[in-house]
Amino acid sequence: MRMTAKLLAAAVVAAVAGSTASAESIYAPNLSYRTGPFAATGIPLMNGQKDYIDMLNARDGGIGGVTVDFDECETGYSTEKGVECYEKTKGKAIVTQPWSTGITLQVLPKTNVDEIPILAPGYGFSPMADGKVFKWAFNAPSSYWDGASMILQYIDSQDGLKGKKIAFLHLDHPFGKEPLPFLEKKAAEQGFELVPIPVGLKEMQNQSAQWLQIRRERPDYVVMWGWGAMNAGAITEAVKTKFPMDHFIGVWWSGHDADLDLVGEEGKGYKSISWSFPELDAPVMADIKKYVVDPGNSQSNEKEMQGVFYGRGLVISMILAEGIKAAQDHFGTAAIDATQLRWGLENLDVTEERLAELGMTGMVPPFKTSCSDHTGHSGGWMLEWDGAKFVKVSDLLKPETDAIAALEVEKAKEYADANAPWPMNDDCN
């Protein structure tokens, strides 16, 4: 009987191994927005993401021997459509990539029930960094509060913050309001005046009222949390009103090459904080050309591929791929599920050495996630428009993680209390 039991156990193991080996693909959908008011920024990001996954599928046969089905569900950046896409794809998906702070906030409570990880690199709800409260949400490698911290540090290093007036030009949307708790806290602590100036969705292309207010306020700096058509509208108005471009700084979603191309040399000096950078000579770019572009399988073009957003799309899919690989290695299976990917995203360790292996040195700072830290707080570089392209004008900047961590805990608790009963990850210290 003992021998029979052993043979039965061996048969079960073999069956599991066989099913893993024959797995056709891993389903990792992307809630894309190639249409709508933010399409101009969405398209290069989606193209970069897709090209990286297509490169892995063509060059390596996928990840761990299993191809990745990178299906797109078009949202047009609409929260309502985004929720519909989430519901449509969640059944067999190992991840959801909502691509909007508004969509992220809507699906955040659903993922606790559905047990599917949210991957929102560099966006979403900043307190998602608190893994004890947000077990299924990840916003590596850097949060909006990280971005606000690095921008303030840069301004402080140039002119000091005390006594300064900073206009905060932001989209009147959950995304645009996201950094306000951190900025308000720092304004009180460091003695600068913060002047929030919202831009409605219908005002993105006509910001004359906002820039009239900026002229009246005469701020020392304008910090922009813009997206899509809002960025181009703001940059055009800044040039028209002769605002000093070297005192105009955007978050990483406000650093799109095509927006600055509209003003060319007149935009020289405009800056954007960024946790990614396009290294055109990186080995990964050569592989994408060989395995995706040359066979005619890319939707991108040569100019777009040189830009910040296309390169950021590559980095975002790299983060997903590294999470998948970490889970495969840990659980000893190629056909991982959503729960296993959650572990992988919680145990990312993207070192300089690993970036070199991936052919992506200099394209993103090293970062590491953990049970308690779902962001990694990688830091970033200040980029500046030189009239034709973005260039790095700072060494690696690091966010004030202690101050941010305290605010993360405070706001995560507020969220959990407001949405009680909220499940905590009690295994996370």
Give structural attributes:
single chain, 429 residues, alpha/beta, Rossmann fold, 2 domains, 7-stranded mixed β-sheet, two-stranded parallel ribbon, 13 strands, 46% helix, disordered N terminus
Structure explained in plain terms:
With 429 residues, the chain is α/β, with parallel strands linked by helices. Helix content is 46%, strand content 11%. It is built from 16 helices and 13 strands. The chain has a 7-stranded mixed beta sheet, with helices on both faces. A two-stranded parallel ribbon has the order 1-2. Strands 3-4 form a two-stranded parallel ribbon. Helix 10 (257-261) links the parallel strand 8 and strand 9 (271-274).
Task: Report a brief summary of the structure.
By secondary structure, the chain is α/β, with parallel strands linked by helices.
List the helices and strands and how they pair.
Elements: H1 2-21, E1 25-27, H2 39-60, E2 67-69, H3 79-89, H4 101-114, E3 118-119, E4 137-138, H5 144-159, E5 165-171, H6 174-177, H7 180-190, E6 193-199, H8 208-217, E7 221-225, H9 229-240, E8 248-250, H10 257-261, E9 271-274, H11 283-293, H12 302-305, H13 308-331, H14 338-346, E10 349-350, H15 352-358, E11 367-368, E12 381-385, E13 390-392, H16 401-418
Parallel strand pairs: 1-2, 3-4, 5-6, 5-7, 7-8, 8-9
Antiparallel strand pairs: 9-12, 10-11, 12-13
